Amino acid sequence: MSRARRGTFLIGTAHIRAGDVAAAAADPAVEVVLSAEALELVGLSREVVQAAIDSGHRVYGLNTLLGSGRDTAVDKDSILDFQVQVVRYHHSGVGALLDGDEVRALILARLIGFTRGGSGVRPETARFYAELLNRGVVPAVPRDGSVGSSDLTHLAAVAAVAIGEGQALAPDGGLTGGGEALAAAGLEPLVLAPGEALALVSANSYSIGAGALELRRLQWLADLADTALALSLEATARYDGGGNLSPFSPAVQSAKAVDGQRVSAANVRRLLRGGWLEDPRRQVSVQDSLSFRAAPQTHGAFRAQVGALAEALEVELNGRGDNPLTDVASGLMVSGGNFQPMQLALAFEALRLGLAHVGISSERRIAKLYPPQRLIRQLNLEAARAGTPLASEDLPGLLWYSAAGLLAELKFLAAPATLGAPTLSADVEDHSTLAPLALQQLERSVEAAARLLTIEALTASYLLAEAQDTDLREAETRELGTGTAAVVALLSELLSRQLPAAALVEDARAALKDLLAGLPELQTPAPEMNDRSADVGGQDAGDQNHGRANSGGTNFGRTNSGRGEP
Questions:
Q1: Helices (H), strands (E): how many in the chain?
Q2: Alpha-carbon distance 497 to 486, whole Å?
Q3: Number of Cβ atoms within 10 Å of the Cβ of 65
Q4: Based on CB atoms within 10 Å of each CB, which residue in 208, 279, 401, 523 is the most buried?
């Protein structure tokens, strides 16, 4: 299957960034390449597995059953059949299928896990997973089935296709057999070696891969929140004498060492730069409501949580979460609990709570922008009584109520998801993280918050456009900031189409995504992360090109907390 390539994602032994993984997974034209150093480490880890086989010692999942059957030996003559049985047994997911980019992220995360040296798969197995990505084989992976102690059912759906079973997504959008999908891509089914079945399914690759994709949306959402806030500051200044910028001043922001808070305040100042709100002669309230005045603190805390998610994702990407762990340094296979991604699960949890607080502030600002909307409607009615045709209003009147409903959803979704796991496998697996559920609830929260913040941006832009019309009639100039002016111009054009509310919000969200991605006022360089090199499996990590595009002009390095694309 021939496809035009737009870049290369090189997997070496150096530190991997979550943003790079998301960018590579989101673009099926990116070619995934394994470095010689990575393949060497994979080979060394396989030697450890072979030594364990030769020793005859019992090793979990290698020559024993799984779960509650951990102490039951598997006969040597059944080991290869046992690999197939493990894949079939775990291929038990239910529900809607993952999207293509989620499946690619899932496979890519597991492939990266192979190269950390803890899984013990053969180099040819790692190459096979890379070819699944490069040749466009997309297994059909049901969304539900993992309790967050390894995403067993998700990974088993991939492994089923790898051995020529299961189902895959067809080019026409339908489903095809796994064997047929491999044949169409020029691949032969993979014959698993001892211990490989467990290595293929025992990881948190769905939570990691789909979490990396969600990280990009969260980074964009942080920019959207700052943009909606800046627009509302302009609107409250125009209609209610508010818009005090002192809470966004360097003096206030430098008084508290929260990096995300300073980023948010700086974004707002840049969006408002050159506008009327900077005029020192302007009469302004001494203090605005907390939804305006303390917004940098709320938005900054959310940005800090986004940074914590990036850190948690990179812990998982660069760690060895396998059980048993193939430890190259000691030459042993060791049972452990690194498959339990508690830090990642709690990062998903915290972000939903943070988003609820961002939503509370946004809805309160929308509420304060409702009186001028009511005044505009009253003026239109008065003009109609005087004989002028009733003016149409570009902004649907009850968007505030829709925002309130979205806020209620955000509050509901903020409840803990990770505390609900039952005990499984005869009470051997008596604690789980439910990381996938926490992630899926976060995805719903991001959708709701994006719509809520878009409604705020639309509401403020409508009022600012109306105010600009009034200024023209009264020969009075109250300039918008350079950044907010660009947003108002964009959204005013959408508002003028008088679309139904649902279409207006979705179109505005898409338009804001594109605009914010290139808005200079939001190009905030984040502090550089430490350029860490992972000492993986006892070897120096020397591949500094890892995770960067080295052909086609594509750059996967945009992972700073102030940028992102949904």
A1: 19, 8
A2: 18
A3: 16
A4: 208
